[in-house]
UniProtKB/TrEMBL annotation:
Domain of life: Bacteria
Pfam families in the record: DUF6427 (PF19992)
Keyword flag Transmembrane helix: yes
Annotated protein name in UniProt: Beta-carotene 15,15'-monooxygenase
Entry coiled-coil feature ranges: none
Length: 326
């Protein structure tokens, strides 16, 4: 299967679509009785009053989520290939993206993190273009606005603001205007939101939006480790990918090295930003999928022994299906 997706063959569009629904067999087999879809954060509903909580049946919810994942995988695959992160074009990024979004049942439903992944993929593309642009102030401003829009959908997405400064450190020489542009872009969106709150004579509620920023990072975690055994194959592949990347690191283009460093930091930021939401759900970690999928794709793109990487991927898929059913 890996060998098939190593080729940039149009027939893989059909295979990827079939694979997307195959990985969701478990949730279609055991469809929950009811699924909520909180499209926006409560503080944004005063501005955009769209109630989709009970708009879809459970089956429709899952089906739409699968279609969105497929579309995201295609966009993501194109961006990774355009920036030549794997050295040669393939459908592996899309394949790994779909696999990553199928690790847990909550990943397979409509949720704010799934919607934010469209924005995350978009800003990944813009980040990777920073080093190729003579004047990136407009790009950084746009990224700030995109992050603000994502924050309206899912508050922890605000953590991606940190990525603006990390990206500028990696790709650009210091220019204070670029550093300020991202913050101005972010503030612009919330300035208009504040004006709307003021117009509605509800400015005190606007201040409540920022209370989660005062949360202390949790020191104790209640984790049922059996629920996360499926991550063992992921960890094995990431370790192999890291070794492969280390071996080729100094033989890669400088822009490629910086791109992988950026994606690594994005992966970490996506994980730790959960503390911005006191009652976060497992689907929060969908934000880790785009940067993580590039690393997984890198391993399978550069692995040499076909029998090993094909067997490894097969075991990975089977373990995901096993834990989803069990």
């Amino acid at each position: 299967m890996i060998n098939q997706f190593r080729k940039l063959n149009p027939v893989n569009l059909i295979f990827l679509l079939a694979y997307t629904f195959f990985m969701r067999v478990a949730i279609f087999y055991e469809t929950p009785a009811h699924l909520n879809f909180d499209f926006l954060e409560p503080f944004a509903r005063l501005l955009i009053n769209v109630d989709l909580d009970n708009a879809f049946s459970a089956q429709t919810n899952i089906f739409i989520a699968a279609v969105l994942v497929y579309v995201q995988a295609l966009i993501f695959n194109r961006i990774v290939n355009n920036h030549n992160l794997l050295g040669k074009p393939s459908f592996l990024p899309g394949l790994m993206f779909v696999t990553g979004t199928s690790l847990f049942m909550p990943f397979m439903t409509l949720n704010p993190a799934l919607i934010c992944n469209f924005l995350l993929i978009w800003i990944i593309d813009k980040f990777l273009k920073l080093g190729k642009s003579a004047n990136s102030i407009n790009t950084v401003f746009d990224i700030g606005m995109i992050i603000a829009i994502g924050t309206l959908v899912y508050f922890p997405f605000m953590g991606m603001l940190l990525m603006i400064f990390l990206a500028l450190l990696l790709f650009r020489s210091f220019n204070w205007r670029e550093w300020v542009a991202g913050l101005v872009g972010f503030i612009t969106v919330f300035f208009f939101l504040a004006v709307f709150y003021y117009w509605k004579d509800n400015l005190s509620s606007f201040y409540q939006i920022w209370k989660p920023l005062g949360n202390k990072f949790p020191s104790v975690f209640k984790i049922n480790y059996n629920d996360y055994l499926v991550l063992i194959p992921v960890a094995v592949i990431i370790i192999l990918a890291s070794l492969q990347l280390r071996e080729n690191f100094f033989r890669s283009f400088i822009s490629t090295r910086k791109s992988f460093q950026l994606l690594f930091f994005m992966f970490i930021v996506a994980i730790v930003s959960f503390y911005l939401k006191p009652n976060f759900r497992t689907w929060h970690f969908l934000l880790c999928v785009p940067p993580g999928a590039v690393l997984l794709a890198y391993y399978f793109s550069n692995a040499k022994k076909r029998w090993f990487y094909e067997t490894l991927f097969l075991l990975f898929v089977l373990s995901v299906q096993y834990f989803l059913f069990v």
